[in-house]
Amino acid sequence: MFKKVLIANRGEIALRIHRACKEMGIETVAVHSTADENAMCVRLADESVCIGGPRSRDSYLNIPAILSAATITGADAIHPGIGFLSENAEFAAMVEEHGFTFIGPSADIISRMGNKTVAKETAQKFGLPVIPGSDGAVNTIEEAREWAKKIGYPVLIKAASGGGGKGMKIAHEASELDNAFSMARSEAKAAFNDDTVYMERLLQNPRHIEIQVLGDNYGNAIHLGERDCSLQRSHQKVLEEAPSPGLNEEERKFIGELAAQTTSKMGYSGAGTMEFLYENGEFFFMEMNTRLQVEHPVTEMITGIDLVREQIRVASGAKLGYTQDDIKINGHAIECRINAEDPDTFIPSPGKIKRFHQPGGLSVRVDSAMYDGYSIPPYYDSLIAKLIVHGANRNECLMRLKRCLSEMVVEGVKTLIPLHQRLIEQPDFIDGNFDIRWLETWLKNRDNSALQKEEQDEAA
């Protein structure tokens, strides 16, 4: 087992990894930017190293600085966390080349699954169902027109190296294709320095279902059930839950076993997530995230398994600590992402936390690095806390979540807490009747209603 792990990340996920390490008797090294010198993980870690200025490119994306920090502190391994370098194949390879263990899958697998066209080809090779689309990259508008005819409108043009909705455009009909294709390539080039795009049929009202998998270096692989991540805005998840209220037991068993089998065939080691779109009883593979997910706590709540601990164990050379028969799904869990954003406009709201109070009680978990007096930097993702609750069933979980949101206090900045409070009162959400387009439609209707009321008040 490792003696010392460097955590190459920040915020709540860095603290989450630190806690897992300490419970395993492992020393931790926190790296940080100048903007994060007072971060909770920096305060709690056994050692800390400043690796650069506040901008991500100068610190959390600064590979030489991170490797130097690992060298001078004598770390055995590096945990990349979520975001930043967690799915950077070059970084994973360099970590290993410099004599450290990368806590994650191999650089080769990260590279293969990081390119969405290659990932789709890999998925098809191992028997995963995929959305009808182009055979790899689409390089010219002429090719795009031909593929659109074969696939049928509406079509989705996606960046091959993309994520987070960047480099993704929709053409509902032929007259929209040229502009959508050009915009997708330009956006992909700007965001990922790679203008490669591919095309897929646009599903109308799918759910976003993802399967948590774990594999080791000995060919063993298991799944830990599914998460429903359909509540999204601008392709960014807002609330996740497990299990999905939209699947039956037969569907759940089918897609879970298929994901686990594929994980084993790939020779995948560590924690990973296979993401699918689900519509009319069919699953379609989208991508595989070769890292820990922001929403991993809902899986931990319904299985009782510490995913970070398993990541570390597997990376150290141990076999998986569980078989598929050991995995039992217990009850229901929901996670609300608490972002420092205006709940109406979604404009980021960095600033000083004047008061921070976490809800508590049975089956309540808050993953956060916040504390009274902490100043949220303006340079990074606006996620400041994750509220996760568990119940014996979905109804009990919802009632507990409602109570916890009313207890949670964050003063000094605006947050999405009011949005979540309104969201969980909606009949469609309560009934589990939603898809990936539901939230944006609801937000649009909400905004229109607010505008109409303003106009009526002015007229009066």
Characterize this entry briefly.
The protein folds into three domains: 4-103, 3-Layer(aba) Sandwich (Rossmann fold); 132-201, Dna Ligase, domain 1; 207-445, 2-Layer Sandwich (D-amino Acid Aminotransferase, Chain A, domain 1), CATH 3.30.470. 37% of the residues lie in helices and 25% in strands.
Topology (elements, then pairings):
Elements: E1 4-7, H1 11-23, E2 27-33, H2 40-44, E3 47-52, H3 63-73, E4 77-79, H4 89-97, E5 101-102, H5 107-114, H6 116-125, H7 141-151, E6 155-159, E7 168-171, H8 174-192, E8 197-201, E9 207-215, E10 221-233, E11 236-242, H9 249-266, E12 270-279, E13 282-289, H10 296-303, H11 307-315, E14 332-339, E15 351-352, E16 355-357, E17 364-368, E18 375-376, E19 383-391, H12 394-407, E20 409-411, H13 417-423, H14 427-430, H15 438-459
Helix pairs in contact: 4-5, 7-8
